[in-house]
Amino acid sequence: MSRTLVLVRHGQSDWNLKNLFTGWRDPDLTDKGVEEAGAAGERLKAAGLHFDIAFTSNLSRAQRTLQLLLETQGQSGLETIRNEALNERDYGELSGLNKDDAREKWGEDQVHIWRRSYDVPPPGGESLKDTGARVWPYYIHTIQPKVLAGGTVIVAAHGNSLRALVMALEGLSPEEIVAAEIATGVPIVYRLNADSTVASKDVLEA
Q1: Of the candidates 26, 37, 1, which has an alpha carbon nearest to the alpha carbon of residue 185?
Q2: Predicted confidence band of residue 171 (pLDDT cuts 50, 70, 90)
Q3: Catalytic residue among 10, 36, 126, 158
Q4: Site: Transition state stabilizer. Where (predicted)?
Q5: What span, in angstroms and rounded, lies between the C-alpha atoms of 4 and 135?
Q6: In this predicted model, what pLDDT tens digit does every residue of 2-39 receive, in sequence order?
């Protein structure tokens, strides 16, 4: 019984590079992001991981990261399920804005609250708590059963949708999760117990 769950944040996107709030907007990967996706696939291959099914968001940067990773790993035909429940946090009116410009418009403190608080959403957007409210049910009803049935499952998504998942998996508090960072293109490998708790965690860094 494998009961293995792998989480990977998409590689660097064009808007990450330009320091823009991305949210549900759909920029592609940079050359560095493409390299990060391939490198993640190499590390997963070296770890001997072979997937039964993949999940990703409706956004192309996560989908392309998954595609490149699976090609590198030799599993390009893997069954893949896409769902907007795994989309990045919606940044609302901040989407598409340069983060420095946003600080000039609303002030350093306010932008920091929107970015790093747990339950304060930006105008027209989602907080991390709001993001979790769509991620958690999808995980519990759709992804977790595949893992607990003994499968090896990969989820390619985004910084905030994955932080919401990590919060649930590791039982982190709101204060702990807002301080957590998830690096682009670095797989996190969880082995689960039969009761869905985490037996082990490995971060496959370069």
Answers
A1: 37
A2: very high
A3: 10
A4: 158
A5: 18
A6: 999 999 999 999 998 899 999 999 999 999 999 999 99
Say whether 16 counts as a known binding-site residue: yes
Tell whether residue 10 is among the known ligand binding residues. yes
Instruction: State pLDDT tens for residues 42-82.
Output: 999 999 999 999 999 999 999 999 999 999 999 999 999 99
Residue 88 designated active-site: yes
| Phi-psi sector, 3: left (phi>0), alpha (psi -120 to 50), beta | left
Decide if 201 contacts 186 (C-beta within 8 A): no
Count of CB atoms within 10 A of residue 150's CB?
Answer: 12
Flag whether 22 is marked binding.
Answer: yes
| Cβ proximity of 12 and 32 under 8 Å | yes
* Residue 15 annotated as part of some ligand binding site: yes
Phi (first) and psi of residue 147, to 5 degrees: -70, -50
Regarding the domain delimited by 4-203, which CATH topology (the fold level of the hierarchy) does it fall under? Rossmann fold (3.40.50)
Domain boundaries, the chain: 4-203
10 catalytically annotated: yes
- Annotated catalytic residue, options 36, 88, 126, 158: 88
Question: What are the tokens at 127?
Answer: 């907080």
